[in-house]
Specification:
This protein has 1 helix and 8 strands, in the order E-E-E-E-E-E-E-E-H. It has 142 residues and is mainly beta. It has one domain: Lipocalin, CATH 2.40.128.120. An 8-stranded antiparallel barrel has the order 1-2-3-4-5-6-7-8. It is globular.
Amino acid sequence: MRASGLDLSGDWTGVYDYGLDGDGAVPFAATLFDVGGVIWGTTLEPNTFAPEAGAELEAEISGSRSAREVHFRKAYIGRPRHGEEPVHYTGHVSPDGNRIEGNWTIRGPGFFASGPFVMNRIKGTAARASLGARTGETVEVF
């Protein structure tokens, strides 16, 4: 797949790590829309840091893609305690467009954290998501 024809729209699964040799790995699911390199979507992950916010945390993603490089910001919905600051992701897309690997960083008053992340596209979701983004409808692809 050429980078110019790349479209990251679809459903993804992934994991981000707190950089503690896999001890702090957190799985997540994401739905991305990519229109001309503008990226937005949502994530859902188990709550690992704000017990008062429930079992799962949802976040909104916004960012951009230029060729095979992606940059996006994840902001937790409701800004739970210890999740007030946005998380910044920078990654590289695989040649087939189905994997993104990179690093995340978060800066807040008096702290900094970072670690790796990886995302894999769920097979068969690219067409459904990109058609839905253009038409505003959910389109199932079998």
